[in-house]
Specification:
CATH class of the largest domain: Alpha Beta
Number of strands: 7
Strand order of the largest sheet: 2-1-3-4-5-6-7
Strand content: 5-15%
Order of helices and strands: EHEHEHEHEHEHHHHHHE
Mean pLDDT: 85
CATH superfamily of the largest domain: Response regulator
Largest sheet: 7 strands, mixed
CATH topology of the largest domain: Rossmann fold
Length: about 220
């Protein structure tokens, strides 16, 4: 299996030490470097080109939301995993809209961290339950009647939604349902229009909200 190069960016030495200790137990992960502030991080990203950067943006004087913007602009090839204690929903939504791959809180356990790194390295998205709850609250806040309304989707469209939620891409879904990829794309377009959604992430949130899938944690591939 290919090694995943990782940069650790956190102003707190003990956090970096803890992550290094956790990841050193696996031959898959390689720590390419550590940064205690934005200047060190940007220099490290330019020289080491890691596949994943683990960052806490909520550290005044060291890292900020601006740091995430700089990384996305200068190093779009680096996948971002945020691990932060920030509880501001406004800040969290800002960060997610900037295109980070994954978001965990600092209360997440070892397996969640490892799963999030692996998902991020594949270009997928991974959110812990708390962040997913925030997203559900934001996406489905149109009133109590919305949660009781019957789904407007057909049985076939529900099948497609469930497979998208499992992380399958169009070609794989086509194989599962014995349809052409073009037909799957057509179904997806109709589903998004019916539900007034704009992304696969929102579609998975819909599936969680309506009980089509469980909400332990979400990993998404690009459709």
């Amino acid at each position: 299996m290919q090694t995943i190069s990782i940069v650790l960016a956190d102003a707190q030495y003990l956090i970096r030490l803890g992550l290094r200790h956790l990841l050193s137990g696996s031959a898959i992960f390689r720590i390419a470097g550590e940064a205690k502030d934005e200047a060190e991080l940007m220099e490290l990203l330019a020289t080491s080109r890691p596949r994943v950067a683990i960052l806490d943006y909520n550290q005044p004087g060291a890292f900020s939301i601006h740091t995430v913007k700089r990384i996305r602009a200068a190093h779009p090839e680096t996948h971002l995993l945020v691990i932060s204690a920030d509880e501001s929903k406004e800040h969290i939504f800002q960060i997610l809209e900037l295109g980070v791959n994954s978001f965990l809180t600092k209360s997440c356990d070892e397996q969640e961290i490892i799963d999030a790194i692996n998902a991020s390295a594949r270009g997928e998205k991974f959110f812990c339950t708390k962040i997913l709850d925030y997203l559900l609250e934001r996406t489905f806040s149109k009133g109590p009647e919305s949660s009781c309304a019957a789904t407007p989707l057909t049985a076939r469209e529900i099948e497609v939604v469930k497979l998208i939620a499992r992380g399958l891409i169009a070609k794989e879904i086509a194989g599962e349902l014995n349809l052409s990829p073009h037909t799957i794309y057509t179904h997806r377009k109709k589903i998004m229009k019916k539900l007034q959604l704009n992304s696969a992430s929102e579609l998975v949130l819909y599936a969680v909200h309506t009980g089509l899938i469980k909400a332990d944690a979400v990993a998404l591939q690009s459709f």
